[in-house]
Structures are given as structure tokens and as C-alpha cells.
Amino acid sequence: MSFVVGWALLVLAFTAAAEDLLIKGGTVVNADRQFEADVLIRDGLILRVEPDLQAERPGTRQLDARGMLVMPGGIDPHTHLAMPFMGQVACDDFYSGHAAALAGGTTMHIDFVLPVAHDLLAGWAEWQRKAEAAVMDYGFHMAVTSWSKQVAADMQVIASRGVNSFKFFMAYKGALMVTDEQLLAGLRRCRQLGALAQVHAENGDAVAEGQARVFEAGVTGPEGHALSRPAALEGEATGRAIRLAEFAGAPLYVVHVMSRDAMEEVARARQRGVRVIGETVASAVSQEEGRLWDPDWDVAAQYVMSPPIRSREHAAALKAALAGGALQLVGTDHAVFNSTQKQVGRHDFRLIPNGVNGLEERMHVVWQELVNSGQLSPSDFVRVTSTAAAQIFNIYPRKGVIAPGSDADVILFDPLLEHSIAAATHHSAMDTNIYQGYRLKGKVVSTISRGRLVWHNGKLNITRGTGRFIPTPTFGPLFEGLDKRPEHLVDVARYGGVPVQRGSIEGKVDARDEL
Ligand code: URP
Ligand code: ZN
Ligand code: ZN
């Protein structure tokens, strides 16, 4: 590119960013309250939130928001874009995944970096390359799949680059899974670094046994996935991770809570004052395990994810937990493998790449399942889809609220508009959609990402490579006051911290001999 063309593009980009946006006549919904106000956006930030605002600059673009809710863009705390997994690479990358997200009202997500051959820094380099295609804001969590001095040192490097969360897999034996000993070491390191430890909680040893039993019994299809990893294994691992986090004095974040069993472990721990966060996902609150028994193998395989999608009773318990506050937020675990990729497990359910879609659907599905059913208010909706993630990952109030000075990530939501979901019209690179035919009331009609109108009346206006990494600083709110609590459950200072003097064993033996 010549210097002149490059400069012209830069000027154009600057001019585009400089156009004010004025959202008129809507109802602003934040996690704490909703109120009538206009919103003026300038240079990627929210400038004013007040009634009866007028354009302050010529060329201001005005959006009519009468009858609409004006809410913070969604933050999906759990995605896997272009992730290499089970011999495949997830088919949504940072471009198609972001297109899908923006069309569904999500303006930021946090993706999991996987180490390359257990090497954290090599994984980081890999994800930097993937993110070159980005079109919206994103953050990173880092997975830890082994333990050594090098890993402990690299965690610090990764944290200094803007990552405040490390994930440990308690399942996927022989691949990503860590032992309890490794998890414990990781929990301790997280506490030192001021980073949040995250767990995929399933008992990986028991899952491997369950899979073998089911397969040997002749069940080779997708239903074998649900049969082989019951909710008890999710509950056990969740309880174990929480107890180990208590032991190490580290806050904990349980990803994709799929069952009542796991949810109740989180709820009980929170009740006794443990700093644990429970994240559920869109598929868990809206889908049910019967889909894995679909007579069409390709349909059934779409629903294979781990932990598995459970029965309706579990979904109901998870929704109640979100309403009651036992669970704090909803992600997606968006990890998509198309029907050709899923086919690798045609004759053995254990080989079906695990993962479902949701990045584009999450906001609509949560609204439908929880607000339209009367379980959450619009403010609660904002909390579980955006604000809680911003707070937990320490980027609030930059994200997760409509307020002066915050990033202008905003959606206009028409609560009366009815629509349905279909693979033919979605924006993901997937050829299927687990929400196919799902009917909804309430639709994101406009998405504003850093002040740019990127989704409006059914059209995307996005540019590859314009995405931005959002660093998540360590020592977030979950670490507040932690220094005043015991550093470890093994409290050697109890009863004075001095070893009890009991005399010599020889003396005791002599005394016994005399009797
Ligand atoms: O099935 C799933 N969840 N796939 C993505 C990897 C993970 O466990 O989060
Ligand atoms: Zn997981
Ligand atoms: Zn995941």
C-alpha cells in the first residue's frame, strides 16, 4: 500500500470514528435501574446519558429508539474461536465469530487461549495470529494443561500481558486434563498473581470409565455422550474444585454449569462465604438432552458438548438459580464444529468433537427463556449477560454499563419483535444451528461497537482487522480484602503456631517399662 493511500485510509477511519451518534427516545437499561434518556456517543465512548439531548455537531447520526430498550452490549465470557480440539479446528474464527456475535448484540467476548504442547507462550502467539481477523473487542483467558516451574513463570508473563483468568480442565483425560495436585498448584499460583482460577468441572477419570462402559454395551451414537457422563460427575468435580480453592484460599470461577448438581455445589459454597462464581451457558438453560437421541445422527451430534446438555429439570433449576442469584452470569461455550467435522465420531461418540453454537443466539435466548418467562427483569438481563462479566473480569465500568465515559458498546433492543433462528440466516460459519426453528420475542435491531453502528436493520457493516484486545487487569473485585482472610486452610499458626513439646519417645518407653 502506498503512503498516500495508507494516509487516506487513516483519515477516512478517523472521520468515520469522529461522527457523533445520538440515540433518541429509548429506555436505557443498566443492571441497577432503567430510565428514559438519550445517549450521545463520540469517538467510541459514551459522552452523555440525559433526557432531551440535541446533536452538538453537524453530521451527527441520529437513531430513533422509541419503544426500544437501550442496553450495554453483551459480553460473552466463554468462547472458543478457531480452537484446535479433538482433531478438528472450530470453524468460527475471529471474523465469522465476531460477525455472529455483533448480529446477536454481543460486543465483547473472552476467548480461551490453549497452550501449544503445554507451552503457554506458544499458545499466546498462536491466538495473537488468530485475533488478527477480529472485528470487535475481545479478551483472553489462558488454559493451563500441565504443571512445571516454567508454567508458573509463564503464568506471570501472561498476566502481565492483560490476562486475569486461568482455566484448568478436570476432564478430557489424556489431553487437557490436570490432576488434583496440578490444580492445587495452579490455584495457589492464581492467588499469588491476583488471577481468577477457572475450572471445567467433571471427574475425568470417571468420565473415561463411563465412556468405556457405554461403548462396550454397544451404544456408539451421540446418546452415549449423555449416558457416559452423568450430572453426578459434574457435581462431584464442582464440589472438589470448590473445596480445593477453599484449601488454597483462591477465588474460583466454575465455567459452564450444566446441572442442578453443580449449581447446588456453587450455591452451598456461596452460602458459607466462599468466593465462587457460577457461569451457566445459553444451551444449558434452553436445550434438553433428548436431542442426543434424535434418530438423525447429524442432528443428534450437533448437541454433543461437555458437560452434556441435561434434562428439562436441570435447565429449570439453572434458570431459577440465575433468578435467585446462586449463578451469576450466562456465557455460551461457543465452540463450533460443522457437520463434516462432527462426522469423525460417526462410529464412536467419544470422537465427536465437543461443542455447540451460541455466540449469536445467547442474548435472544436468555431474553426469551428468562425475561419473557418473568424470571428476570430487563435490568437482571443486563446483569447476567454483560455487567457481571465486566465486574468479575475487572473491566467495569469501561464495559457493562451505559454511562458517560464507558466504551460505546450499545444495543437497541425491540422487546416486541418476533423472529426465529435458522442456520440459513445466521452469521456464523456453521452449517447447522442447535436453535434451528426456535421462536423468540425480542430482537436486537442495532449494535454499536466502540461507537460504530455495525449491525442495523438486518445488515452488518464490519471490517476485518478492526478488533481490539481488552486487557483484563489482575486483582479484580474478587481479590478485594482477601489479604484479611487466611491464606490457606492449613493454618499452622493455630493454637500459637509452636509445636507441642511432648518429651522424648525414649522417656515414655522407660516409664512404661517401670510399670
Ligand atoms: O464441549 C465443549 N464444552 N467444548 C469446548 C471445550 C470446553 O470444554 O469448554
Ligand atoms: Zn469446558
Ligand atoms: Zn469451553
Automatic annotation (TrEMBL):
<dbReference type="GO" id="GO:0005829">
    <property type="term" value="C:cytosol"/>
</dbReference>
<dbReference type="GO" id="GO:0006208">
    <property type="term" value="P:pyrimidine nucleobase catabolic process"/>
</dbReference>
<feature type="modified residue" description="N6-carboxylysine">
    <location>
        <position position="167"/>
    </location>
</feature>
<dbReference type="InterPro" id="IPR006680">
    <property type="entry name" value="Amidohydro-rel"/>
</dbReference>
<keyword id="KW-0732">Signal</keyword>
<keyword id="KW-0479">Metal-binding</keyword>
<keyword id="KW-0862">Zinc</keyword>
<dbReference type="InterPro" id="IPR011778">
    <property type="entry name" value="Hydantoinase/dihydroPyrase"/>
</dbReference>
<feature type="signal peptide">
    <location>
        <begin position="1"/>
        <end position="18"/>
    </location>
</feature>
<keyword id="KW-0378">Hydrolase</keyword>
<dbReference type="GO" id="GO:0004157">
    <property type="term" value="F:dihydropyrimidinase activity"/>
</dbReference>
<dbReference type="Pfam" id="PF01979">
    <property type="entry name" value="Amidohydro_1"/>
</dbReference>
<feature type="domain" description="Amidohydrolase-related">
    <location>
        <begin position="69"/>
        <end position="454"/>
    </location>
</feature>
<protein>
    <recommendedName>
        <fullName>dihydropyrimidinase</fullName>
        <ecNumber>3.5.2.2</ecNumber>
    </recommendedName>
</protein>
<dbReference type="InterPro" id="IPR011059">
    <property type="entry name" value="Metal-dep_hydrolase_composite"/>
</dbReference>
<dbReference type="GO" id="GO:0046872">
    <property type="term" value="F:metal ion binding"/>
</dbReference>
<dbReference type="InterPro" id="IPR050378">
    <property type="entry name" value="Metallo-dep_Hydrolases_sf"/>
</dbReference>
<dbReference type="InterPro" id="IPR032466">
    <property type="entry name" value="Metal_Hydrolase"/>
</dbReference>
<comment type="similarity">
    <text>Belongs to the metallo-dependent hydrolases superfamily. Hydantoinase/dihydropyrimidinase family.</text>
</comment>
<comment type="subunit">
    <text>Homotetramer.</text>
</comment>
